[in-house]
Specification:
The chain has about 210 residues and is α/β, with parallel strands linked by helices. It contains eight helices and six strands, in the order E-E-H-E-H-E-H-H-H-E-H-H-H-E. The protein is globular, with a radius of gyration of 17 Å.
């Protein structure tokens, strides 16, 4: 997560949405940088703890921006990232080469394995009551909107270089497993659909 005082922005780093590439490109401009275990601070923690600190200490209430990915593509990215083509087959977070169907089924089970512990984008971006306190939520597949926003706010083009690129692994998803995935994670699909319906960027929350 990065905070920028002059453009009054906070970038929330949702895992597997290309956030690392943007963070590396924007880091020289940041006033506050979170790395390692707090790099992926959820919006709930930010809203409850860090936003009040910024307001009380620096007198700022940065607009929050983040990226959300199609939930199936998000899971597929995790699947490729944790494949034996990328990491040691005996690593605890490697899925060992199971099918994408089996991986998704594991991810939505009551007790997912470490390899299939991919989290929920909606949970990351929402408060307990369902509010999404993000001022600018961009769809992953509308990179041009995110880049135009960054250029407008920073006054310069910032072109990220690809990082953490996953191997090219076949990952088809059967209709039955997709239906089960949608039934298990409705909030993820609903939030992504809201962003798409808004034209690729959702702007609803307003900081107070």
């Amino acid at each position: 997560m990065l905070v920028f005082f002059k453009p009054n922005l906070a970038f929330l780093s949702v895992p597997k949405t290309g956030s690392t590439a943007y963070e590396l490109a924007l880091r020289p401009r940041a006033d506050v940088i979170f790395t390692k275990r707090v790099k992926h601070m959820t919006i709930g923690k930010y809203h409850a703890k860090f936003a009040p600190f910024l307001k009380d200490t620096y007198g700022i209430a940065p607009e929050r921006f983040a990226v959300i990915r199609d939930p199936i593509d998000h899971a597929r990215s995790w699947y490729k990232y944790r494949s034996p083509e990328r990491m040691a087959p005996n690593a605890p977070t490697c899925h060992g080469g199971i099918s994408f169907d089996d991986y998704v089924s594991d991810a939505i089970s009551k007790h997912p394995s470490k390899a299939a512990g991919i989290g929920s984008q909606a949970s990351f971006l929402s408060l307990a009551e369902g509010d999404v306190p993000v001022d600018h939520l961009f769809a992953y597949d509308r990179q041009e909107l995110l880049q135009a926003f960054i250029e407008e706010r920073f006054g310069a083009k910032v072109l990220p270089r690809q990082k953490n690129v996953s191997p090219d692994v076949e990952a088809p998803l059967s209709p039955d497993v997709e239906a089960a995935f949608r039934a298990a994670r409705p909030a993820d699909f609903e939030l992504y659909d809201r962003v798409v319906a808004a034209g690729g960027v959702l702007r609803e929350f307003r900081s107070v």
